[in-house]
Amino acid sequence: MTITINDRRREPAAGPATAGVRDMGSDSDHVLVKATRPFVGDEGFKDERSEPFKVHRRRLAELKANGLAEEHVEEPAAKSAPPPENKMAPAPANKAK
Fold first, then answer.
1. Rama region for 61: left / alpha / beta (φ>0; ψ in -120 to 50; rest)
2. pLDDT surpasses 80 at 90
């Protein structure tokens, strides 16, 4: 944003009004939430059987304070068995005498 004053252009100074303001659309400010009790909100009807849904951290704080939802922590996928070790005997070293 530029401001024109007397045909001079200058950038606005960063002051207290803009200092520390975060982009509300940032994906890092959103978390997955799982409903713990039925409720109707901006997200629509949610209950214990609903799929986890994404909300802003501030909304999560509101839902937690009212006992309606908890942050959803994805469980790590089951670890697959490690590949079998090669149990073959090593090739004999040729020892010439």
1. alpha
2. no
